[in-house]
Design brief:
By secondary structure, the chain is mainly beta. The protein has a single domain, classed as SH3 type barrels (Roll). The protein has a 5-stranded mixed beta sheet. Strand 1, helix 1 and strand 2 form a beta-alpha-beta unit. It is globular, with a radius of gyration of 11 Å.
């Protein structure tokens, strides 16, 4: 199980794959069924679609 939140590194977020089990600090824990990563306006936006549990969204600044 991989824990994700706004403090997770970009490398950690990039290494999450479909089929991984992730846990968010809001209490959601589920299997990732789809991943979408969008780069826009200086941000990298991660959308993790969860099996039967909705979506976890995390935005990270692209500027380090």
């Amino acid at each position: 199980m991989k824990e994700v939140n706004q403090y997770s590194s970009v490398n950690d977020l990039d290494n999450i794959r479909e089929g991984d089990i992730i846990k968010h600090r809001n209490g959601k824990t589920a299997i990732v069924v789809k991943i979408q990563i969008v780069c826009a306006k200086g941000q990298k936006q991660y959308f993790y679609k969860l099996k039967n549990e909705g979506t976890i969204f995390i935005a990270k600044s692209s500027i380090a």
